[in-house]
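We examine the record.
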Amino acid sequence: MPAEEAQASAEPRAHGYAVGQRTRARIQGAALREFAEYGYRGSTMTRIAERVGISEAGLRHHFRSKDELLVEILRDRDRASDRNWEAAGRPVGKADLAYNRRLLELNVTVPDLARLFAVVVGESVTVEHPAAEWARERYRSISTTMAYSVRGGIESGEYRADIDPDQIARQIIAVMDGLQTQWLLDPERIDLVADFEAYATALIRDLRVDG
């Protein structure tokens, strides 16, 4: 096939792929809002399709089931979080607490995403929820990452050596998730970022070498 014909053949395929990716992104955005508002159980593929402005058959061309769509949104979120943490230089110790503060600042600007996380994690403790495996793996993964950060604080001399990094990691995660849930329920009263800042300051004071 001449080079000109090969290029002409490739261009429609590339265009079609780009259109398909944009449609998938629109579907994920609509599904995020649907799941955040109604939870997994209360959401429907029909309503998601309506939000996007396509037929349900068109929606299922990209995502065969509600399970697949939900898990893909969650996986995409995790991949983005991993990339951001790596780009930040894998912070440890006090630097990681500051990094987590910035994450909460970002969550305030994207409440649908924060709400989706809270709803899905809450629902995932129910029997045979499609996100149950994701939720377990997520907590294992972030606990490992947070413990790595605490150990880094010990190695740098910021934190005492007699603390349990895994225990401290679970406590930090619990505070972040708990504050975020309270903020979602009562955003007018709860200052998510300021409350975490106060907690982080107290934690650093408690963990420091001369504490």
Remarks:
- The chain has a mean pLDDT of 90.
